[in-house]
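step 4 of 6: structure.
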Amino acid sequence: MTREQRLGRVFVELADTLVDDFDVIDLLHLLCERSVELLDADAAGLILADQRGRLQVMASTTEEARLLELFVLQNDEGPCLDCYTTGQQVANVNLDEFSHRWPRFQAAATAAGYASTHALPLRLRGQVIGTLGLFCSQRSTLSEDDLDLGQALCDIATVALLHERAIRSSELLAEQLQSALNSRIVIEQAKGVLAASADIALSAAFTLMRDHARRNHLRLSTIATDITNGTLTAADLE
Amino acid sequence: MASPRVRQILLEVLTDPPGHTSTAEQVLDRLCAALIGAIPIDGAGVALMTSAGHAGLLVASDAPAAALENLQQTLGEGPCLDASREGRPVLLPDLARTGSTWSPGFAASAADAGVAAIFAFPLQVGAIRLGVLDLYRRTTGALDSLELAEALDFASAATTILLDLQHGAPPGELHPLLAEVADGHREIHQATGMVSVQAAVGLTEALLLIRAHAYATERSLFDIAKDVVHRRLNFSSDGA
């Protein structure tokens, strides 16, 4: 099979995984396995930042402790951490040249039998959500094409994760969006009511509302609602 | 909701070109462009909606698409508002024949803008309305079932993009793009509040008064609102 044929198969396989009730973890494992095959690596892991910004291993080609440890270590130092922090690829890292930059990581990776490593970002519109880390037992140099391919695999994973997240928290996010939109509208309407009833400028109306909110530890949108329904008047605010 | 096609669309519109970080606007532009390339329509737009109505245009692929949104906002009625309110697609393959559901000005003004058919799809999560995806065509004709399915998948992708934008915003606040769009309409809400005092009516009725004035004077809702806010126009019964 040529490389193009293998690549075509991988994308078909990935599309097949993306059925209605697909399992994100399954998809991430598949991505790790296929990226190892296509980019001639020996091991791969996919790490994502959790809510506290800690990098967690979500999937890897083996459960070998020595490999997992390499990812855990990268909460402190290593190419994956650099990739995650900068959002840039950190590719073609020959470990024997990097003892100075990442001493602990370099020692652990070398002890695990690896000579080279690569880290590719999972990123979307400037936001980095994790990285794909690849390890090679021989010295490895990826071409531009290889890197584009690896990045395409990462992009698929990113979109799958994003979609999953949007579905999982969609009600909450939709409510937040809707209520933030509504409260902006009510605040503008209340400014209009105050400006017309007290014959003041709109900016002065906003200052009145904001000061009243601060003095009484109330939310601006609560005060705005009271003004629009007439329970609170300009005189009450002064 | 989570069809593989939706993810494919997201991959297509969300993936940044090499060496470039897309803004939210660019992502929404790409969504419209991809949809126009996928099914036989001439233009598309995405607008924010609340239960109170139109909350601002997020993106429009061309002038007629923008005109369509502005028209519906001025009139306070139209297919995209119905789609959002009723939570279902509103399909008008022949606007000249079926557009009379809304005020007489709607179909005529849409035709003036070059619009012959409108297809509006709500962007919603359960009962929560976020916006609407509006498509138009210069010629009459229905979408077939595959094209309809494609449009629904694009609506689903657009909903995901809105939620993703909001995901990045602090609680209680709006993403800057959404805030900018909402703020672009602040004069309308300010004027509504002012007119409710001037005419001694509720907010809903105040907005109707401003709309009626806009319609009668053939100006946009936004222009009338600016006149009210800058005190060039007053709705007091004594006309002061």
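step 5 of 6: annotate
 - Chain A has a mean pLDDT of 85.
 - Chain A has two domains: 3-170, 181-236.
step 6 of 6: archive
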